[in-house]
Design a protein that fits this description.
The complex is a heterodimer of chains A (about 650) and B (about 260). Chain A has about 650 residues and is α/β, with parallel strands linked by helices. Chain A is built from 24 helices and 13 strands. In chain A, the strands form two sheets. An eleven-stranded mixed β-sheet of chain A has the order 2-1-13-12-9-3-8-7-4-6-5, with helices on both faces. A two-stranded antiparallel ribbon of chain A has the order 10-11. Chain B starts with a helix and ends in a 19-residue tail after the last strand. Classes of the chains: A alpha/beta (about 650), B alpha/beta (about 260). Chains A and B meet through helix 24 of A and helix 5, helix 6, helix 7, helix 10 and strand 7 of B.
């Protein structure tokens, strides 16, 4: 009985082996018979493996060959009698190619079969490559237990290498695509998004709120510069075509210091290349006027810029509000400068201003709160001294295509908080009431949480949303987005334009926002040695669309763009800034002219210094230039010729 | 058929612009808006031919025209026109309140450009619109911008080579104090328009404008003269002349059908 059973088992094993060998032989015969297709498929799979391509790319290549096939088939139909026999053209081509190979004409054979073999080979290669990826993703492929993980890691490296090669090719990554989308860089890998070579963001998405998270040195500034330049370029294109409003970019850099100045210079040079005629660096080179705000808003802003106590100190806040309102709303009109405002914070001045008839209530208020006026003036004097002249005008957001505002959020937090409050109020007023209503405004804030004590960032968000502004919040970490988790989730959850995630040690809260996708967990039997058997089981589980481990390992210049439940990993293309223009001779201790100023001053040429001029108009003792007599006579002659003699 | 007819045909038929069209478009763009008779002078053709030329511009979408006041119609560049010229100006129709002033400034420019010395020196007219664009809107509330600057390049052609003149067309009198303040501001200025505020007037630095030329109407002339007299140290750099013929709105200098220049 036992012998009979063992015999049966042996027969079954032999039959199984024979069947397996027969299948292998059949497959080998098929591969050999379809050698041209097999060769193309093998080449396609190798190329896709080497370049880290997705199978879809091979399918697209196969589809792209269809016109060639159609022409070839049409040519075959023209030469066939009757024409329907052209249906057998592929078979005849295959047969002919074999005959040509036998005759020793391999090149001719390849030419004969190419119209059929190439598309079929590409499609077959795509199927094989797809099968391979599926097997590795589900854990059913590979010889060793570590094979799937190693395969994924190798694929990532190859995809990165391909993306880097793409952005290194000159002209391969334009700033704006032909359809007007902003190109961030080359795609490394996608999940839940359409696969493409270039990562393109529609302009309208930049007109929505976005969040950018990335630690220092990960390429965050490079990414932001590209987005800003793209926003300005596309916005200006649309504006020139009469299809959009003129763009305005306002950047609030809340770190400050020398590093911010370097970034500002780079921003200016990059944006100049993007079409921005003037990029204002606040407060170093340009100013804004707080005093352009209407009286009511000015009062609110001035009060918000001062730190108030709570509890019993609220009384003093009320007194201050009353006095500031009196100073701002005086009958002569609101103040025109800080000095004007400080001059009004004087009991005598206010008393005279409200001495006329019809101001009984104000006069009474002044009598009760008059003793605090000096203290209030002192506080505002201190505030304006710390703020500097940046908010004392002249200037408005409409004066430039881009504003780069540097707030000293590290060195002087209190002053930076006041500045942030004022800048946002000015922008809100400009967008709502000024010429800003006719501009597409993108407000980019970097590390705003450092200065958001007086203006919670969610309030900035909501306010911007109501005004039609797009806000782009960037931070070095999830924690840097906002002071607490509620605000962070509120920010990230309302980022309609997507979230840009660079390398960061704690990406989980953000990657979780991309959601999950079904993935297979496969368990297989281990055969005693580190080698898998063929038996096991699989179960479906939810895996994050954006892999946090991958985000944690991102290299410099790589970013995960999370949008609508999908993620695209992008190798960002760095924008090369135009070289800084040579500065002119510095004057009286001021900073030398900026690159922008030098650029704009080029045509026409500014008058030469007097010492070099043909007329040699050297200043006299009073500092006035002395015009030579010959020049004066020539001028008179010229003007007489043009306009007649000077009237008596 | 004269050259302008060819220009018109070229503009309308093929959509291409001739050199004269381009020069005239740039002229119109710099002057905000130009009346037909003055445009004819710029093109060097009759008014009828100038009208045909502008028809081509309008068909191309580069220019607009309208009868905004007395006299011939006004022409100004549209946004596509300004964009085609590569000029960063904001497209808008001329304000009615400024028509007289625009015409006067254009007349001044035409008169100055018609002189032999201007062409020989290769001078450059830098109009108010260009100055404002250069300033990028950073013009302070109280900062005065002249109607134009004339830059005289270096060269042996004139004794005033290398100078920059400010041009002011005065139609209506201001107060003497205001006029004198403007004169002083222009003559004391050291920096280009649009430069940082601290560089606008730097003591010890050569002034930007070697002189300021006032072209005045009869009404404004006494005020300007008194303002100049109120600036004894600077009076030598202020030239006063009358506005050229055709500067007022009452009638164009040339007659229709007559070649303007």
């Amino acid at each position: 009985m036992i012998r009979r059973y063992l015999g049966l088992m042996a027969v079954l094993a032999v039959l199984r082996t024979a069947g397996r060998l027969a299948r292998i032989a059949l497959a080998a015969a098929l591969v050999v018979a379809a050698a041209p297709v097999s060769l193309v498929a093998a080449f396609a799979v190798t190329l896709a493996w080497w370049r880290g391509w997705p199978p879809r790319r091979l399918y697209r290549a196969a589809l792209a060959c269809l016109p060639m096939v159609a022409v070839w088939w049409a040519a075959a139909a023209v030469g066939s009698r009757p024409a329907w026999r052209a249906a057998a053209a592929p078979y005849h081509a295959w047969l002919t190619s074999w005959h040509q190979v036998v005759a020793g004409s391999a090149a001719l054979a390849a030419t004969t079969i190419a119209p059929v073999a190439i598309p079929l080979g590409l499609a077959a290669g795509g199927l094989l490559w797809s099968r391979r990826i599926y097997a590795m993703e589900t854990g059913t492929g590979g010889i060793f237990p570590t094979s799937p993980a190693a395969f994924q890691a190798r694929q990532w490296r190859r995809q990165v290498r391909t993306a880097r090669a793409r952005i290194a090719a000159p002209g391969a990554v334009p700033l704006v695509s032909r359809r007007g989308a902003i190109v961030a860089g080359a795609v490394i890998r996608t999940s839940g998004h359409r696969d493409a070579d270039l990562a393109m963001i529609p302009y309208q998405r930049l007109r929505s709120h976005q969040v950018v998270i990335g630690t220092t040195g990960t390429g965050k500034t490079t990414l932001l510069l590209r987005l800003w330049a793209g926003f300005l370029t596309r916005g200006l294109q649309l504006h020139a075509a009469g299809a959009g409003r003129r763009p305005l970019l306002v950047v609030l850099d809340c770190k400050g210091g020398a590093d911010s100045r370097r970034v500002a210079d780079r921003v200016r040079r990059v944006l100049r290349g993007a079409g921005a005629r003037f990029t204002a660096i606040w407060p170093d080179e340009a100013s804004l006027s707080l005093w352009e705000l209407p009286a009511a808003e000015l009062t609110t802003t001035l009060l918000d810029m001062i730190e108030h106590g709570t509890g019993s100190a609220a009384y003093y806040a009320d007194v201050m509000e009353a006095i500031v309102a009196l100073a701002v709303g005086a009958p002569g009109g609101p103040p025109a400068s800080a000095a004007d405002f400080l001059g009004r914070l004087d009991a005598g001045w206010l008393g005279l201003a409200y001495a006329g008839p019809g101001h009984g209530d104000e006069a009474a208020l002044l009598r009760s709160a008059g003793r605090h006026v000096t203290d209030i003036a002192l506080r505002f004097r201190t505030l304006f001294r710390r703020l500097g002249p940046g908010l004392d005008g002249p200037g408005s957001y409409g004066d430039a295509d881009a504003w780069y505002c540097i707030l000293e959020g590290t060195a002087d937090v209190a002053a930076a908080e006041s500045q942030a409050r004022a800048l946002v109020d000015l922008l809100a007023h400009y967008a709502a009431h000024g010429r800003g209503a006719g501009r597409e405004i993108l407000l980019a804030v970097d590390e705003f949480s450092a200065v958001s004590r007086r203006l919670p960032i969610w309030q900035l968000y909501e306010r911007a949303r109501s005004l039609g502004l797009a806000v782009q919040v960037s931070a070095q970490s999830w924690q840097g987005l906002a002071p607490d988790d509620d605000d962070r989730y509120r920010l990230a959850g309302t980022a309609d334009g997507g979230i840009w995630l660079l390398r960061t040690p704690y990406p989980e809260p953000v990657t979780a926002l991309a959601g999950e996708q079904p993935a297979l967990d496969t368990s297989r039997r281990l055969l005693g040695v580190p080698r898998w058997g063929h038996e096991g089981s699989s179960r479906v589980r939810g895996a994050p669309v954006a892999d946090p481990a991958l985000v944690r390992r991102l290299d410099v210049g790589q970013v995960a763009y999370i949008y609508r439940g999908g993620v695209t990993f992008v190798q960002v293309k760095r924008l090369i800034a135009a070289p800084a223009a040579l500065a002119g001779a510095p004057v009286t201790g001021r900073a030398p002219p900026t690159a922008e100023a030098a650029h704009q001053a080029a045509p026409p040429r500014a008058p030469r210094p007097a010492s070099h001029a043909g007329g040699a108009h050297l200043p006299d003792a009073a500092g006035q230039p002395v015009l030579p007599a010959a020049s004066a006579a020539e001028v008179t002659a010229l003007l007489d010729e043009a306009f007649g003699p000077e009237p008596a | 058929m004269d050259a302008s007819a060819g220009s018109t045909d070229a503009t309308t038929a093929s959509g291409r612009l001739t050199e004269r069209d381009i020069a005239a478009l740039l002229f119109v763009a710099d002057m905000y808006a130009v009346q037909l008779d003055q445009l004819a002078a710029v093109l060097g053709v009759t008014q009828a031919r100038a009208r045909a030329v502008t028809l081509g511009w309008r068909r191309a979408g580069y220019a607009e025209s309208a009868r905004l006041g007395p006299g011939p119609p006004w022409f100004w560049l549209t946004r596509p026109g300004l964009s085609a010229c590569g000029l960063p100006y904001r497209a808008s129709s001329p304000a009615l309140s400024r028509l007289a002033h625009l015409r006067a400034v254009t007349a001044v420019r035409l008169a100055l450009e018609a002189t032999a010395g201007y062409a020989a020196a290769g001078a450059f007219w830098r109009g108010e619109r260009r100055l404002r664009a250069r300033a990028g809107g950073r013009v302070g509330l109280r900062e005065h911008i002249p109607d134009a600057e004339v830059h005289w390049p270096d060269g042996p052609s004139a004794g005033f080579a290398g100078e920059c003149w400010a041009i002011e067309a005065e139609l209506t009198p201001k107060t003497v104090a205001r006029t004198a303040a403007i004169m002083h501001e222009i003559l004391a200025r050291t920096g280009d328009y649009g430069c940082p505020a601290a560089q606008a007037q730097v003591p010890g630095t050569p002034p930007r404008h070697a002189r300021v030329v006032y072209l005045c109407s009869a009404a404004a002339r006494p005020t300007v003269a008194r303002a100049r007299a109120a600036l004894p140290g600077l009076a030598g750099r202020v030239e006063i002349r009358g506005l050229p013929p055709g500067a007022d709105m009452r009638g164009p200098a040339g007659r229709g059908g007559e070649r303007a220049r």
